[in-house]
Design goal:
single chain, about 180 residues, alpha+beta, Ganglioside M2 Activator Protein, Chain: A, six-stranded antiparallel beta sheet, three-stranded antiparallel beta sheet, 4 helices, 9 strands, about 20% helix
């Protein structure tokens, strides 16, 4: 599931505004090193939670590893994903992208990610799940070797009709590679 969240966030990150894409310069775009400033849970938009979960960030051999444990006491259908991407500059947060995806299991890309990475075929979650994702590796796989330098916050809310499945935020910093 963590890969799913990271995948959604990085797909969203790749769709920045035309203004930023055409503003590529060597001082704001190029080979990078990614570090995570923060990562954790947040309050979802619905008043009820459909799961209990915990997460943490580990650093192992220059890689940032996200660990997630989920428990679903009843069957929950993954119905909607909301993603917000912010740029952080001088303690100011600017919304770059806001996206809502209904029926992610029917989405051509998300359905395959859910199936291949998490074994979720029908979008029904029940029981316990443990996911470990190498954020550093995923970053290079999804973004390639060049990206926009800076600090970003990705906020992801995953919901069912019954309530929140998860709410996570990621705070990566992309720095120029030496």
């Amino acid at each position: 599931m963590a890969s799913f969240y990271l995948s959604i966030l990085f797909i969203s990150c790749c769709t920045f505004s035309v203004r930023e894409i055409f503003a590529k310069k060597t001082d704001n775009y190029g080979p990078y090193v990614a570090k995570w400033k923060d990562y954790g849970t947040c309050k979802g938009p619905k008043p009820v939670n459909s799961s209990s979960y915990s997460t943490c960030l580990l650093v192992e051999k220059n890689s940032y590893i996200g660990i997630m444990n989920f428990t679903f006491n009843t069957s929950v259908a993954l119905e909607q994903v909301r993603i917000k991407v912010y740029s952080i500059k001088a303690d100011s947060k600017t919304l770059l992208w806001n996206h809502r995806m209904d029926k992610p299991c029917q989405h051509i890309v998300m359905a395959e990610i859910l199936k291949s990475m998490f074994g979720i075929n029908d979008c029904i979650l029940k029981g316990s799940y443990y996911w470990r994702i190498d954020f550093t590796d995923c970053t290079y796989k999804y973004l390639g070797t060049s990206f926009f330098y800076g600090e970003y916050v990705f906020k992801l809310a995953v919901m069912s009709k019954k309530g929140n499945i998860a709410c996570l935020f990621y705070n990566p910093v992309f720095m120029k590679k030496d």
